Protein 1
Amino acid sequence: MDDHSRNRKILQVTLAGLALNLALSAFKCSAGYWGKSQAVLADGIHSLSDTVTDGALLVGMRFWNKPPDADHPYGHQRLETMVTIFIGLVLGAVGVRLLWNALSSLHIPSASEVAPGKIALLAALVSVGSKEWLYRWSLFWGKKTRSMALSANAWHHRSDALSSLPVVLAVGGTMIDPSWIFLDPLGAALVSLFILRASYTICKDPLAQLMDKGMPLEDLKTLERIVWDIPGILGLHKIRTRYLGSNSLMVDLHIEVNPEISVRQGHELASSVKFSLMDHFPSIVDVVVHVEPYEKRNEKEEPW
């Protein structure tokens, strides 16, 4: 998938999520008000908060796809990493708030005198189904486009679906027996733990990338084999890799060649290394190859 198709698909999925979040928020707030359910009304307000991350994704796309310039010679892809972390932090804040509210309400009797109406239960069920579908669709395209930010936003959709589950239990249980309202804080506490775990999962890799984490060791060994298969390479060391974004990888390495060959021949070998690696790893956007005269070194020494 080329960059244009990738960006267009990310935009399409994000806009669909934004539209659904706005529609769901309006529906749940209305259903909570007319159905006399504070839980559904609060869930509608929670859905409205999802539009913040959708907006962050849309704004971020305008900048991380910009070409390199004088101030940013490596491009702007790191902004996608920062947007992903922002989404993860927002998700974590939602999880902490839900957990705090759930633990606090365990000590407060909350059975209502008037059972919620059927419209409130319908709104909660529609929320679970639609947000679960949106999660699966967004995660599929997040993986397909290799977009950390889109995948992170998918998990935010899943958090909204999960947070609606205790609402379904609370509303449904209260309609059967008002004393069953205690299911609400217990379910919310459990859901908040899943949300906090998702927040950690979302933030872990982007934070590692901001620390210039390199490619996995298994891929690094594959990279090494590709270079060694090129005729004329007599030595290889100082391999360094780092991610510029979820879909961009920089590689820096030193090769050793016969000291008697010409500068042109050394340059041609360096070009062979560069394009061989870029052909094998689509995520590699550039390779800097340092050409050195061959010196016999310890064969057991790792090349990175």
Note: The longest helix spans residues 3-34.
Protein 2
Amino acid sequence: MVFDLHSHSTCSDGLLSPAQLTERAVLKGVTALALTDHDDVSGLEEAKHAADEWGLEIIPGVEISVLWQGTTLHIVGLHIDPEHQPLASGLSDIRAGREQRARKMADSLAAAGIEGSLEGARRYAQNPELVSRSHFARFLVAQGVSRDTNSVFRDYLTPGKPGFVPHQWALLTDALDWIRGSGGIAVLAHPGRYRINEAQRGQLLREFRDSGGAAVEVVTGSHAPDEYVTWARYAKEFGLLASVGSDFHGPGESYRDLGEIPALPAGCEPVWSLF
């Protein structure tokens, strides 16, 4: 089996539809793909239907936005039940908050002399409730404000830069309850990206584990090779399973393509041992 347990479609901030994503996964040699759109599960049915035709296993998933000690975290849920009411209600509340944040982001960019960003970002979003930083970034590139999306996130939309708006996402404990209540497995996504110190890492991993978290992404698109070893060590230290995922958003916009994920370091217990 070739697992890719973190990917996005146009139902959040990806560039490919759920059906196109599944086709690309097959062409890239993936045999089990988790569709984990941000705070939304509307693409799962299309992905499952397309995957059945391709012989690909689709793992129903989601990536939930969480605020922990002032830092935005992402929690991936694998093998969730998208019909679970507390999960569905929680995701609906987060999406409503995203719309409010998008308006404030546009106001901040306008104050910096960039007009029309909300309407521009919406042109890149399939769901108007899910206008994200990625959609604003694509607008800024199209307008010639920045060379590419990586440049956008150096100059805009991040703390201290125009377009950044802090937001109260879900609580960590709530997100874990929703995932576990739906029968799912909770995974801490791309932990190397969070700007927290060593003491905070330990505190986060303990809270995550003790509140029902099961795994941490060890090999993921935004981790450098030396981080694979670091997070394998953390997983072992805190009794967590290891997950892998490209965090694929689309051609030209991702750290790694679907299926282009190295193997887990030796000694890791993979999260798919629970599947």
Note: The mean pLDDT is 95.
Protein 3
Amino acid sequence: MRTPLKMQASLAAHLMKHKFLGTKYVPLVLMMEPLHACNLTCEGCGRIIEYKDTITEQLSLEDCLSAVDECGAPIVSICGGEPTLYRHINELINGYIAKDKFIYLCTNAMFLDKVYKGVQPSQNLYINVHLDGMRETHDTIVQRKGVWDIAVAQIKKAKSLGYQVTTNTTVFKGTSWKELDELFTFLTDLGIDGIIVSPGYSYEALGTVCGGDPHIFHSREEVHAKFQELLPKIEKYRIFTPPQYVEFLAGERDYKCSPYSNLTRNPRGWKGPCYAITNGHYETYRELIEATDWDYYINRKDPRCKSCFMHSGFGGSLVLEMNGKDMIDTMKWQFSKTG
């Protein structure tokens, strides 16, 4: 199966529980940013710009662990910044595993040896390595030569040690599907456990409202055109991204946003309303939920939402809006072979 049965069962139980409780805004993923510091200055990264004044701050281990209890999400994406720079990264991962959460450690892979020394392989842990293209493209985006080679070497090492490994690829405007086909084929042949793919989006922090550098980010129409090319090839690779999301990116279906399903906790507090847009930070999860006009963002009324296709906004929508046919198609996809 493309995703573990245990994860699917946990997510299904979580949804059933909240349906029974009548929860209006169901959290699915905690985007945990224990720090925003990073050893790289990747093109298109909003965090090192938005939080430059608090770049040295780190959350306490206790705050990181209690955040998942506050919101109750079954999945945690440990991101940042570069999370392996966090002083308590191994204790944090082990703490989430002890709580039986499913973890994606989102990393540029340069300091993974630190994690290998303190965290054992687990069915609850995915090491999620950032790779935005083949060698030249990736090293250009992260603005440092040699990073691609380190990432690939660490993927091989992690797999040899028994860890589950996924990759995360942000597709920018200048990246062709010829190169992406080469990358995804290479990763599938490498024995990767899953490939996550999404289009680049201009964070508010990168420029004007819905702005940023127009030379690297797609328009809505360009996203549709580029991902139309992936649709016929989706079963060729070890893609973790559900087919419904690829169809959404290709313009063949539409979803409302569900920003409440992927909420962000960082050293400033609970970030609202979503991973990409910052209107404020809140001391508690409950304050964020109660203070936000969720319908406004669900229906994408904010101009900053115009060209957004981020998985943090629409990944939860795939689950929350899933119908019977989608469930059947998802099961077929789960058992489909790659390569």
Note: The radius of gyration is 19 Å.
Protein 4
Amino acid sequence: MPYKEGKKWRGVVTYDGKRHQALLSTKREAVAWENEKRRELKETSKRLQEGMDLLTFCTKYLDYSTRYTPKTYDEKRSLCRKILSAWGHDFLVQDVTPEMVLSYLDERAKGQSNNAFNKDRKNLLAMWNWGHEILDFPSNPVVRIKKRPHDRAIQYVPPTEDVLRVLAVATGEERVLLECYLQTGARRSEIFRWTWVDDLNFEKRQCRLGTRKTKDGSMEYVWFPMTDELYDSLWWWWNNREFKNSPYVFVDNHPGPNYGKPYRVRRRFLKSLCERAKVEPFGFHALRRYVASVLADTHKVSAKRIQRILRHKNLATTERYIKTLNDDLKETLNLLSTTKIPDSHTRNEKRANQESG
């Protein structure tokens, strides 16, 4: 029953252990509010018993998504926050309609870009596909929504002259790390997590690269032949590494919580080298595009063979840059060593040791 509070009436409804209240002008309004609130709460409770609310769905999906890379997980978590804000935590998944999804995506396009529309559409589609397969959702409200056209921004590829300048100013571990990317076309994290035992085989002159760019987020590995240049650099680093007892090839030597552990990110590494070399800044992924461009433009290697080196699932992805590798690719990878790169101290030192021996 409502009670008087000053000159107004307070309506109060306690349901399922939660207190709901509102301050109204008259007792009649307060009674009407209480009756309507009870009806609303009972209806919501009944619907929740019949279906799953959006917050529960998002929580279950994010628990599943921990198997993906941190970048992919963060992208999915960001999407969940946005749809929870747009549709409400208690909204039933079964009540999400294609019209609602399209309206949300249209707002993303207006507020940001068609690319934002497409990225959220992709993640929503994957999210509801998982709900259909695992949670027995009867339908997917995203499946009929089409991608929007958008122009891809031109990705920067550093010229060979700039890459050579960066290599020239790099010393010690810096140069070895750069050569690992230039001789393999690897993704950033693939080199960061290299271990001496699992990922390098000096006897067979092979190195292993692994990615989680799979549907289920599991690791997928490929063994590559080492170029002579990469072998020399890594062998020198094995003998001159700072952390002799670490299983990792490259170890964070900066003071902090990650000291002595493998790198997660090196945000200023390439930027600092570019500043020292006085060239336009570029990142690790630009080196991957550079490898593709050198093979395609300078050495006229086919797109299909470059696709095998970069390990793209789709040839179109490789073409925008311009499963297992066989021995015939060693000659192709060695093309990366034929670029006239200034001698590094690693090769000079190894050559001097061989001559003195």
Note: The radius of gyration is 29 Å.
